[in-house]
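lol forgot to send this yesterday, sorry. struct tokens for the thing we talked abt
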């Protein structure tokens, strides 16, 4: 298994002013890397150390699962954003997918509502399930990797994801994520997998 957290795909101040550098300093450096530190402590030189991160997620439970899934979920969240991203995607596969879900306004409202409906900590996801796009939300560290669904995009809705930028306003965070941060090229790449 790769025991390093992947570098952020942009500078920590690159998502300003939508997502503060301070947010990335805490969320990436402290939370994300903290899950990896804990995972390494838990696994040590046990057989899991020979597996890939995804294999660990799919074969573990308890604290090992929670920390491994958090490592993977955060990398997926970072990769789904870029400076100057968001808004309606350009014509192509992703735009077609969104049109299939009722168009941009409907998609945007549904994604935000799915994230708002997750009580407590977790994630909101856009996934492919049997070739059909749908929304999903998961509690805590849970991830579509343990289901039949293929993840396309996620937003972290743990309070640590938005408190420095939006305080308790999760809706404002999700709207800013969709309108100004989403990396549609990443979604397009995941659609082709
Ligand atoms: Mn997080």
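and heres what i got for the seq, position by position
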């Amino acid at each position: 298994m790769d025991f390093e957290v992947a570098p952020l795909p942009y500078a920590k101040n690159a998502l300003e002013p939508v997502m503060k550098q301070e947010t990335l300093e805490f969320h990436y450096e402290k939370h994300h890397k903290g899950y990896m530190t804990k995972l390494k402590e838990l696994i040590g030189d046990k057989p899991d150390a020979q597996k890939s991160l995804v294999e660990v997620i799919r074969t573990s439970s308890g604290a090992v699962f929670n920390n491994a899934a958090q490592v993977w979920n955060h990398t997926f969240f970072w990769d789904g954003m870029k400076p100057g991203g968001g808004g309606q995607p350009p014509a192509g596969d992703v735009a077609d997918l969104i049109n299939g879900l009722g168009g941009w306004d409907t998609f945007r409202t549904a994604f935000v509502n799915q994230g708002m409906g997750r009580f407590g900590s977790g994630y909101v996801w856009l996934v492919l399930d049997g070739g059909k796009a749908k929304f999903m939300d998961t509690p805590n560290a849970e991830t579509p990797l343990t289901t039949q669904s293929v993840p396309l995009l996620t937003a972290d809705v743990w309070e640590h994801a938005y408190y420095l930028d939006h305080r308790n306003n999760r809706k404002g965070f999700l709207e800013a994520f969709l309108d100004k941060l989403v990396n549609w090229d990443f979604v397009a790449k995941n659609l082709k997998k």
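The chain is about 50% helix and 10% strand. anyway ping me if u want another try
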